[in-house]
Model the fold of this input.
Amino acid sequence: MKILLTGATGYIGQNLMKRLKDRHHIVAISRSTEGKEDEPNVTWKSADLFDPQQVSDVMEGVDLAIYLVHSMQPQAKLTQASFEDMDALLADNFARAAAKHKVGRIVYLSGIIPQDGKKLSRHLRSRLECEKILGSYHVPVTTLRAGLIVGPEGSSFPILQSLVERLPGLVVPKWAYNRTDPVALQDVMDAFEKIIESDEFGQQAIDIGGPQEMNYKDLFAQTAEVMGKKLPMVDLPIIPVWLSKAWVTLISNKPKEMVNPLLESLVHSMVVTDEHYVEGISNAPTSFKDSVKAALKDQKPQKFTLSHLPLPFIGGRSGSDRNDVKSIQRVTVPQGWTARSTADYYLTWLERSSFGLINTDITDHDAQVRLPFTSKPLLVLKKPAAAAYEDFATYLIAGGRLALARDDSRARLSFRQVLDTNQVIIAIHEFEPALPWRVYSLTQARLHLLVMTAFGYEVKALAAVERWRQDGIIPEAFSNCLERLMGAPAPQGTN
Done:
């Protein structure tokens, strides 16, 4: 098969590529292919998965696509976005491209979804939303759901290992008694091979776990035993998860963007369920101690630094050498609104909400945002030549006083509807400000977040008014009056 592999530079992707490349042709995807060379049965291609066109280009001719993407790290020099919203956009781009090119199946790695009745953590809720988005364009999705994957790199096990290694003792909070099914990296690779190379798996979610169900306190104790270290433990159940985040981030030497979502999920017990059990996959054979021994054998030395600690800036920041910005916000709009109608409303709202300080000139081809009595606009937004989907509207940021214009610029403002809900994600990608970076981060960046927050409150209020009218809580005439005052389009059929 011709297999598209995202996350090819990650530790799951690297191991999976080694397993598959002797029998299949792998198209390995990375944002940059610098330093990567093609080899027999492996072709490297660069693609920014936030760019729908680039995702579509690399998907051409693919039989099966493997999705190993998770946005727990900043994606630009300045990132104003939650990982949930970034993951939703990436999954939507991927699923659209797979449907367009008639890919046979998507294989997705997710987390075990607990059945304890508790409200899902942000991390698990995002994983489940991505699973739904990937399957929303009629391409079958086979999801492998795992809890703690015990391997030499990645996220969860290296955090566990560093805590055991660096702490003289452990104060055990209440969440340490929740249960999990740890699984060896080797067993995860075996499961992937079976899923990928068998025709019997289609639209299906499969849990995988090792032979021992245990609590997190047991994980610490057995890891310490394998490492030959004594780790005294004292129960202190009153320690909340939010307090654990700070010291785990410091001791583990991992960024808070990675640690916080993972720790929030520890309030759940994540064990293999009967509903998603498949014999030969769900019951992985490697014991926890054996998987720890294998992981430690291949572990690279870890250096302790303070470079990961948070600094006083707006949003998350990566090591990008460009002054690029990614800003993503999710808003709730009235039922029946599309991404296109939300985009149109947003542009007119900018002028109305600024009380005349900002003018928006909108034509069939572009929109210009300007100050009154000035010739050069602040921003020029151009509609691309290709027609937009009703649930996907995009403007190219083509210039203006506030934007750094480049010939190869792919800066854009997009509006995306999430599944069949009344939520729309508004995103700015690859924007480069014309202002000096420090000035921008203290002024325009802050103002943009303020504007998006205000817009989110207004459309949420409009959605509430519409819901109250449908439920008969307020008279239709009164709700129409409120909507007119807020500038919303009148519902069809009203005068």
